[in-house]
Amino acid sequence: MADSEPFWRALKAEVRKQGVPQRDLARRLHLSPSALSELLNGKRTSTPDWDVVRKVVEAIGGDVGYWRRRLEESEAAESARDHNTGREPAGCVGCGRSAYVSPPPPYGDGYLHSLSEDTRILAGRDERLLAEMVAIDEEGLETPPESMAFRNQFDRVARRLLADLAEKARRACHPHRVQLFCAAHALLVVEACIKGPFLPACWDVGVGAGELVEVSLGQGLTSVPPLGADMFGPDHHARVVQYYDGVAEALSLFLSPDDTAATVALYESRVAELAAVCQQLCVWITLRYGTGADLAACPPGRSRTELERLYGELGARRTGLGGLETLLRTLARDAPPAEWPARLAEMHRHELARPLSSVGEAGESHPGPRIPKLAQGYVNPSYRAAIHTPDNRPHIDAWWHTRPLHQDIQTLLAGHLTAYPTLDQPLIVLGDPGTGKSLLTKLLAARLPPTDYLPIRIELRTVPADAGVLEQVNHALHRLTQRTITWAELTEASPGVLPVLIFDGFDELLQAGGTDHYRYLQDIADFQRSSATTGLPVAAIVTSRTVVADQAAIPPGSTIIRLEPFDEERITRWTYIWNTVNRTHPCRTDLAARHPELAPQPLLLLMLALYHSIEPDAEATAPMSRVTLYERLLKLFVRRQITKLEPGLRPTLLEEKVENELDLLSVIAMAMFNRGSQGVSATDAEHDLAHLRDPANSATDSAPWLLFGRFFFIHEARATYENGEDHLWYEFLHATFGEYLAARKIAHTLASCPDGGGYDALLFALLSCAPLTDRTQIIDDLGDLLPATNTNTDPIRTLFPRALYPVEHDTGYSTGPTPVTYRHACYSANLLLLAFARGHVLRFSEIAGTTPDPAANWRIHATLWKSQFEPGAWDAFTRLVGTVPTGGDIVLRLSEHDGPGLTAGRRTLILHDPDIEELANPALPVWEALGDVTSVGGETDSKGRDTFAGRDLVALLLAPPASYGDLPARYERCLKVLAESATRPGAERMHSAISHRLAGESGRLPGAFVNEALEKLTEVMEVEDETRIALLACACRQLVRTGAREALARSISRLLDYSPGQLRYLTARSTELALSELYRLFRAPRPRTWLLRTAIQLDLRGWCTRHAAHILGEDSPDLLTPHESDYLHPLLTPQPSDPASPPPTPPQPPPPIPPDPH
């Protein structure tokens, strides 16, 4: 280092002048003679270390202050020369090399900062700065002057560490830039503690500076939170307030809210001050900790103007993830990208100019609607997010609806990619078919700046499904580059960037079958971890359908996001884009209102836009019915696809082929329904096409099952294996397409029945595999598709009486080994559902044929159905089919009906079996009162019988008085059930019944048992007033018995609507004294009214005489029951006043009983 040579020459001359032998000096410094000679001759390439200089000066008896000034002057001269000449270190300022070769500290969940580590990151190769901060960190705080000196030293060193942060960040590679920002933010957090009221408060309680720093770095705000963990909490300002409150509590400091506010203000002002010179840090904090974190505090000037422009641009770029690119380029390294990142970025960016979908390519000679380009037409979706835990249910829509809805997915993705990547936690993106998961991955790969990122998109349907992760990555690289380049070669040639592996279509691997992929996500996490240990951190993103999220092991702690359907604002924005591109073929602007079922799905919205652009008058007067819309949509797009493949067909032949294609699709829809699935494999599709085609369809296709993938409303999942074999899986983009086509197939087949031949056999094949109540939308569609009932021509009246007999001309169709009884049960039940699919009331005798006893015939069929259907299917059937016995017949109605408490009864009473009804009728009041709570429990009693809540409660209420031996055990069972079902309908009634029985016999039960029962009853749920009064009376009686006074105090506090901690201990010699003590403690009107009602319950006339008038005032009619009003009427006196203190000569309460040590 040439600039430091004069300094070392002067110091070497001083060593010689003092006559200190270099060998002795080397021994004192623990250096070899050659190393000391190299040092004194200025041959070291690193910055002179002040610690070494100080030891040399002290060894020769020199002036330490003088030589420190000389060293600082030398460093300042070198810094000025570098600035004037523009000299920069080669490569990253963190690692000093052009490639990143060693993993940084594991910032993220569970990592705790240390001041020395953060200083090391910020100081870089300036060892003197690091030594100064370490020395400051070790100082104590024994006197106020020392506190002030510590504060001044810390401030001086901290400002020097942060002085050139912007320049360091501009040159740093991605991993080291993240380290810089993490360390800078941690330093700002600690700095606010030291410069604010925390430092004097520490001196007051004898806390040292080291402990203050350690605690302030260990409270969570300074570490990078896992993505999504901070997305659902308070905003950043509130989080900072909570953080500093936590520091104060951890150190037992006596600070006021104003002190905390002052500390927060210091932190925010320093962030704003640093943002003025390093915008990247402000953006990074915003991405990690929430928008609005520091912009408001940023002082006016160029930086604030730039930040406002940036955030304004981000808010305006709501399509094509354009804001994501803006954010990442703001943070990107100021250096040209390496060759391969630049080449891959160019390949990915070609996707931005491609259409959103190829669906509009119909092949007609005349021009039609144009599909918007990806960058323009992709409307950024909203999303929900969660950190995965074993209790999560990410495959269930209802579970996702419990998570908050977020609007800006660009900020979330940028926050994930600008943080240090989690080493074993991929980001998982879920969504329904057609929500744009694949488009999101294309945009993500196209938007990442090549100076910082190396995106590789792995389309899982095109890589070997049975290969390992690394092999799949290499296979994707070959497809993308058309060159034989491996992952190792690519990353070695791309230094200083973050590889981002984007695995698109994990559900395709799961659904296409052939290999067990349960551990696939864990395999990706393992690949991330092993790559990071070799010095190459990797980010991984995986997309999949929501419904298969339970079919794979998700690494704990992984962030999962679910893309949400479009809301009305996004639908409006999308249609505006469409109409801007298609000024001559606009679509309707009210698609959201007309088609709320389809429009929220982006791909189906595209389908609607195409349809209305081609058929602008389709809904000119009024919206079409659902089935009419689906029929026209499907025919339009099937016709366009056929015209594209076979132009010039005669109209009659074209329509014949259209009907043939719709029949093919209908068979696939039935294949899915019959297997209880939303998709079907190519093998099963081929099997069903051989058995379920329309007998009259003359059009043929040599390989019909290969056609489905060409229709955009069919999603074809494909998994390719190393032996070249493809596994295919078909699925409708929206379940309602399949449901409509299944209803269409059934209606068309039924229209040709009965024929005593092929159509009768086909109808049996269609309706004998699953009850239609499994998919009620099919029944609804059939109601619109089936013609009006004609008693003389209704085919059901002919088919149903024969439904339990063998079918003539059986097609031999089956989805697998199935009992004959099950097939006929499904067939007969489905014929019944078809009979009243239009919603009419139907007498069973109308379709049952000539039977002398329709009710008995019904019982035969219903018993068969109950015996054959799975419990869930039978529950769905009985929920939809209502029955009323009338004069030896059964009246049926198709309608959703279910009353609370009737689930088990509904499933059983629908049989109309006289024996069952005789046994069930006495239990009906229990079912009606308790609802589904009756089925909770399932324990075995002393006689080996399974017990449930309903039986336990009846057994308790009917048990003899308290002397009965197993009465406490009955209470225990009921209390356990109550705790498990507290949120279910009917639980409140069960709670009330248990409470009133306990209150009535508490004096005959063991005191400890009653206290425990009271605590369980008061903590399990809110209670209604009548139950509250009964439990209060019980608790007051318990106070005069021996037992756990603390437990009783907690129970009484809850009953009086106070926190359990507000009444810690209570005792009394009588119930009247107990009420008086409570009256003194609880002065609010409502608790005092409850106490009055309790006194009435306990028949304490004297207490009521003294307090009733004051408590009730003029509102007595509204606060008491008629019985209570009658009780008080003779006791009330005209005197309205009530003594503020207890009676004139109150009995002295006994001394407190010490708590039970056990």
What is the element layout, followed by pairings?
Layout: H1 5-18, H2 22-28, H3 33-40, H4 50-59, H5 64-85, H6 115-123, H7 127-137, H8 144-162, H9 165-171, H10 174-195, H11 198-205, H12 209-217, H13 236-250, H14 257-275, H15 279-289, H16 302-316, H17 322-331, H18 339-349, H19 374-377, E1 383-387, H20 397-400, H21 409-418, E2 427-431, H22 437-447, E3 453-459, H23 469-481, H24 487-492, E4 498-504, H25 506-512, H26 520-533, E5 539-545, E6 559-563, H27 568-581, H28 591-594, H29 602-614, H30 626-645, H31 651-674, E7 679-681, H32 682-689, E8 714-720, E9 726-732, H33 735-750, H34 758-767, H35 776-785, H36 796-799, H37 820-835, E10 842-843, H38 854-868, H39 871-880, E11 881-886, E12 889-894, H40 903-909, H41 914-920, H42 924-930, E13 937-940, E14 946-948, H43 949-958, H44 967-980, H45 987-1001, H46 1007-1020, H47 1025-1039, H48 1045-1055, H49 1071-1081, H50 1085-1097, H51 1101-1112, H52 1116-1119, H53 1122-1128
Parallel strand pairs: 2-5, 2-6, 3-4, 4-5
Antiparallel strand pairs: 1-6, 7-9, 8-9, 10-12, 11-12, 13-14
Helix pairs in contact: 2-3, 4-5, 6-7, 6-10, 7-8, 8-10, 9-10, 10-12, 10-14, 13-14, 14-15, 15-21, 16-17, 17-21, 18-22, 30-31, 31-32, 31-33, 33-35, 37-38, 43-44, 44-45, 44-46, 45-47, 46-47, 46-48, 47-48, 47-49, 47-50, 49-50, 50-51
Protein name: NACHT domain-containing protein
Pfam families: HTH_3
Region (Disordered): 1121-1158
